[in-house]
Write a structure and sequence with these properties.
Blueprint lengths: L1 E7 L6 H14 L4 E7 L11 H4 L3 E2 L5 E2 L1 H10 L8 E3 H13 L10 H20 L3 E9 L6 H13 L4 E8 L12 H12 L6 E6 L5 H11 L6 E5 L7 H7 L2 H9 L10 H8 L5 E9 L2 E3 L2 E3 L4 H13 L2 E9 H6 L4 H5 L4 E4 L8 H13 L4 E4 L1 H13 L7 E2 L9 E5 L3 H6 L8 E9 L4 H6 L3 E8 L1 E3 L4 H6 L2 E6 L6 E6 L5 E4 L14 H15 L1
Helix pairs in contact: 1-3, 1-9, 4-5, 5-6, 12-20, 15-16
Bound molecules: glutamine.
């Protein structure tokens, strides 16, 4: 069974969350569910895209650099969604062209239709098979009516034609409530439905995203005009948290409606953990104020926040788990650089400081200053990837006195390259082979006994996801250890440093990997829990 989720009227209304929420509710009914994301751009994956263009890249277990929606699927469905579940126009064309080059089409003319949609369908089926799924949710990026996703909609039409009873179309559409009118308007969505009809598809369910709950009058009107019953029009008003959406849909019997339409076996449980979860996260607990020190991404008059989405989610999961209330603030590392004397004003009120992943030299000095502040003032510090590299540079500069210590990503000439390019990376960069060539995906890490990391994880061997080109330079390992920076997590051959900890500090831990990718609402990541616990304790002291 395949459920296509397509967007109408405008993008950015949360199709990913809708897809993930429907998926998790169907999973609760005893069905095996997986989810596929289709991005209409020509980039082969999200890895080489600027965060301003794309937001944070989500790395799958098997090392694909994908869209953040894949993260939502993993968080909501509590499954690992593999590489096959992600495709872009570029990836689809690349496969078709490579197949043609190796005579895979047996000398036939290869055409945009049907060969491109056929490749899309074969990828959807491969994802379905890889997860042995009863239901595959397929989210088509963008909105209907755009030139770019026509071939994906054509794939949906071809699948629906072949198996009319096994394919559903869900339209997630925006319903504006213009301030000048004070009334919810259905017409833009009616037009969106017309566009869906034009490509030969008919929505089976319309999810109406809006600031308000759609009322019965408009449900009836929209249903009448779009050939649907009123109960097939689902209200999706703005809610305080994305984790409120599953219980919102459950109340409107979305899983039952879908199960009936698809005629599959599945029984909705009397109780759903999402209902309780959605209550829990809104209970006021002790506030914990975490500052994410990173570089800002601004576009025009707007500043983008979702470049660290997984980090924010992971912080929330851990904080809710400890029955506290997260207060996450953004700190522009360039501001620290500009006003170094004001660092206590900028960082002083925080219970914890986190430096997330990053690339390039902008804002790096401010990050290193933030690490120094956290170390000296005993503020819990958690570094992720670039955040570990910054911590290493800080200790090298300010404890060992190597004032020029740096990563060669920022300063190629430094005499103390405490972070340097991994061996296999040199050639790749020389050949400008940037796409998909970092150290990506899941790798093992062994934890030293007696370390904080080992205590938090509760075992010796962990698998974590990576996305980096540079690494801790082993030449400096002993000297950095003697300075107090302990390498407590390493690759099994002990060559790569994966976790560093600074002793005699309430919490100073940094990882070369990205633990945020593995945090789930019901299963927060142990390192994040440890960090938030330390942050809560700081406040009490
Ligand atoms: N820029 C650093 C590297 O490539 C860190 C990457 C990251 O933070 N994801 O190693």
């Amino acid at each position: 069974m395949t459920i296509f989720v397509v967007g109408g009227v405008m993008s950015g209304v949360g199709k990913g969350v809708v897809t993930a929420s429907i998926g998790t509710l169907l999973k609760e009914c005893g069905l095996k569910v997986t989810a596929v994301k289709i991005d209409p751009y020509v980039n082969v994956d999200a890895g080489t895209m600027n965060p301003i263009e794309h937001g944070e890249v989500f790395v799958t277990k098997d090392g694909a650099e994908t869209d953040q929606d894949m993260g939502n699927y993993e968080r909501f469905l509590e499954v690992d969604v593999p590489r096959v579940n992600y495709m872009t126009t570029g990836a689809v064309y690349q496969t078709v062209i490579e197949r043609e080059r190796s005579l895979g089409y047996g000398g036939k003319t290869v055409e945009v239709v049907p060969h491109i949609p056929l490749e899309v369908i074969s990828r959807i089926r491969a994802a379905q098979e890889a997860s042995d799924a009863d239901v595959t949710m397929v989210e088509i990026g963008g909105t209907v009516g755009e030139y770019q996703n026509v071939l994906f909609l054509e794939a949906a039409r071809m699948m629906k034609r072949d198996e009319p009873h096994n394919v559903l179309i869900v339209l997630v559409s925006y319903m504006p409530v213009p301030a000048s009118l004070g009334e919810m308007k259905t017409k833009p969505t009616q037009y969106a439905v017309k566009l869906v009809n034009e490509v030969g598809l008919f929505p089976d369910l319309i999810v109406t995203r809006s600031t308000h709950v759609i009322d019965d009058v408009r449900k009836a009107k929209l249903g009448f005009n779009c050939g649907l019953k009123a109960e097939d029009i689902i209200a999706a008003p703005d809610v305080p948290s994305i984790y409120d959406v599953p219980s919102l849909f459950r109340k409107q019997h979305v899983p039952e409606i879908i199960i009936n339409k698809l005629k599959i076996r599945g029984r909705c449980p009397i109780k759903s953990p999402w209902v309780e979860f959605s209550k829990k996260i809104h209970r006021k607990g002790k506030p914990v104020r975490i500052g994410i020190v990173g570089k800002y991404f601004s576009t025009g008059d707007f500043v983008l926040g979702d470049v660290y989405l997984c980090v924010i989610e992971a912080l929330k999961h851990a904080t809710w788990h400890l029955k506290a209330t997260p207060e996450i603030t953004w700190i522009n590392s360039e501001e620290i650089e500009k006003k170094p004397k004001e660092i206590s004003r900028i960082l002083g009120k925080l219970d914890g400081i986190l430096i997330p992943g990053g690339f390039g030299n902008r804002g790096v000095e401010g990050k290193i200053m933030a690490v120094k502040y956290a170390r000296e003032h005993k503020v819990p510090y958690f570094g992720l990837c670039y955040g570990m590299q910054m911590a290493t540079i800080e200790v090298a500069r300010n404890i060992l006195g190597w004032t020029d210590a740096n990563t060669t990503e920022v300063d190629k000439q430094t005499k103390h390259p405490v972070i340097h390019l991994m061996n296999e990376q040199e050639e790749r960069l020389r050949n400008t082979s940037y796409g998909g060539t970092m150290r990506l995906g899941e790798y093992p890490c062994i934890l030293q006994s007696g370390s904080l990391a080992r205590r938090l994880y509760g075992h010796e061997f962990v698998m974590e996801r990576h996305r980096h080109r540079y690494e801790f330079n082993p030449v400096y390992r002993e000297r950095l250890e003697n300075a107090g920076l302990h390498c407590v997590g390493t690759s099994p051959d002990n060559n790569l440093v994966e976790i560093v900890e600074f002793k005699n500090h309430p919490f100073f831990l940094a990882t070369q990997f990205h633990p945020e990718f593995l945090s789930r609402p019901f299963h927060p990541h142990p390192l994040f829990v440890g960090f938030i616990k330390a942050a809560l304790n700081k406040k009490r002291a």
